[in-house]
Input
Amino acid sequence: MSRSLSPLESKLIMHLEWEKQPVVTIEQARTILDCSYDHARQVLHRLARRRWLAPITAGTYELIPAERGEHAFPDTNPLFIGSTLVTPYYFSFATAAFFHGLSTQAAATVYIATTVRKKRRLLTVRGKAYRLVVQPAHKFFGAAEVDAYGSRVMMAEPEKTVVDSLDRPAYAGDVPEVAAMLWRGQGRLDWERLADYGLRVRSQALVQRLGYLADLLQLPWEGPARTRLLDAVGKSTPYLGRPSQWGTGGEYDATWHVVDNVPRQELLAEIEVR
Output
C-alpha cells in the first residue's frame, strides 16, 4: 500500500516529525488536528494501515518517519517500546544490569520501575514481555537519561540498579545474580553512592544484605560507606535470600545480623573470591 497522505494526515505527520515526537496517542492527535476523538482515531487507524504509524498499545502509535522510505518498518528496540508504556518510568533490575554490564545475560522480560499503578503490570507488546514494577515515591530516584541502542531512555544508574535488585531480587535473577553484579561492578561502582542509595530506600534488611555481601566478596569498600551502613543495622535478623526460595537454614553473621540461607556454592557460582 502506498504511503500517500491526505492534507489532514500530512498535517499530523509533519507535526510529529518537526517536533521529533516518536509516539502519538489519540488524545494528542485530537489536539494537534483540532478534531473530534473519533475523527482522530480514524486518522491514526488510516495512517497505521499506510505504514506511517505502528500500533504499540491500544490508542498509542509509533511514528515511522519518511526517512525510512517506501518499505517502512517500526523501531525494533524493546527499550524504545518500553519507554512509551508508562510515565514516569525508568528501566531497572535485570534490564539495567545487562545494560551496565553488571549482568552477562539479557533477561527475556524488560523491567520498568514506575510510581503508577496499572491494572495490568505484565504486558506483551510485539512479542516482548514488559513488567511494570511499582515503586513508592521514596524509592523512585537514581535514574538518568542514556542512549540505549539508539533511543534516549531513562535508565537506573549502576548503583541504583544494584539497590533495586537487592530490594526485589526476583526481578534480577535472585540473590546469587545480585552478588555477581557487585563482583562485576567492583571497579566501576561508586561505593559512597551505593551506600547513600541503600539508605535512602529505607529498608534495614536491604542495608544488612548489602553490607554482608560486600564483606563476603571482600570488595574494596572499607571506610565511610561501610561505616554508614553498619550504623544503620538494627536488631532485626533478615535472611539473605527469600525463605520461600532458599529455606530457613543457614549461618548467622553477627556483624550484619543476617542469616545466610543461600548455599555458598550457588551464591558464588559466577564469582571467584580472592
